[in-house]
Design a protein that fits this description.
- With 278 residues, the protein is an alpha+beta fold.
- 65% of the residues lie in helices and 9% in strands.
- It has 14 helices and 5 strands.
- It has a 5-stranded mixed sheet.
- Helix 7 links the parallel strand 2 (119-125) and strand 3 (150-156).
- The longest helix has 28 residues, at 71-98.
- The chain is globular.
């Protein structure tokens, strides 16, 4: 029944009707049986709508009760509807993105993969940002699904007013000065244990760097390097010039993905980017 409802109602209405059917088991059973029929027609849909209207007319008090008793489900479905609207707007925006010239400095930044790969993903991110952590999980899966096809560039985007974020970013850049392998190990460790990073601050950063086997004396020296601080500032200014307002923000061959979007969005951007090369 939910699939039928989704065809003619908004996200908020979907949330209410789903909850209503939950409270009307007899009708819900009938609707579910109808859903299994392979060739539903317009008359079936109209009958279902009329049945719902009848329930509402006979029990107007159900509206507030349903919304109150199923508030979490209402919020979840409304959020899903909002995400789908954002995705549609994003796909439209990509045409403008490709017409907007952007530049990305690569030298000295953490990179992964072949620079000659057909797709380049540039990430402006923050190790202390919860949305960045969600996006990083999705991105890891995407990178695994496209072996040899993606060149990944990580750029910390941190405000000077956020000292922990800046400290974590400088530590990560300093780790890459020692070893690519240990740098990426620290990258994953800090994201995977973000709660500890946020809760324990620099104390956890010290624990994490020791865990991946970094030379602490050299690490502390490199963190004080003017060059690494300059890299952070350059990437921050570059992000602003490229229209980045917050984290995370990804660019897939120029197509902007501003936020933690589901995997399907990255897949579509990557496939379009590879088609551009043909």
């Amino acid at each position: 029944m939910q699939k039928k409802i989704n065809q003619f109602c908004s996200a908020a209405a979907c949330a209410f009707l789903s909850a209503l059917l939950f409270l009307a088991p007899a009708y819900s059973h009938k609707a579910q049986a109808a859903e299994t029929a392979p060739d539903q027609n317009n008359a079936d849909q109209k009958a279902q709508v009329e049945a719902i209207r009848k329930i509402l007319a006979e029990h107007p008090d159900l509206v507030l009760n349903v919304l109150r008793d199923n508030s979490e489900m209402v919020l979840e479905i409304a959020q899903q509807g909002g995400t789908q609207r954002r995705i549609k707007m994003l796909y439209t925006q990509w045409e403008k993105d490709l017409a907007t010239p952007r530049s990305f400095q690569i030298k000295g930044r953490p990179t992964l993969g072949n620079p000659d790969a057909p797709v380049t993903i540039v990430a402006y991110s923050d190790l202390t940002c919860t949305h960045c952590r969600q996006a990083e999980t999705v991105l890891n899966q995407v990178l695994q699904n496209y072996p040899g096809k993606i060149f990944f560039v990580f750029k910390p985007f941190v405000f000077k007013e956020r000292p922990l974020a800046r400290e974590a970013a400088l530590t990560l850049l300093a780790a890459f000065e020692q070893s690519q392998e240990k740098g990426w190990a620290l990258y994953h460790l800090l994201f995977e244990n973000q709660e500890k990073l946020l809760g324990e601050g620099e104390q956890y950063i010290d624990v994490a760097t020791a865990q991946v086997g970094l030379d602490n004396k050299r690490l502390q020296q490199d963190k004080k390097s003017a060059r690494l601080s300059r890299l952070l500032d350059e990437d921050f200014n570059e992000a602003k010039e490229n229209g980045v307002e917050g984290t995370p923000n990804f660019f897939v061959n120029g197509r902007s993905i501003p936020g933690a979007f589901p995997e399907e969005v990255f897949v579509r951007a990557i496939n379009q980017a590879m088609n551009d090369k043909r």
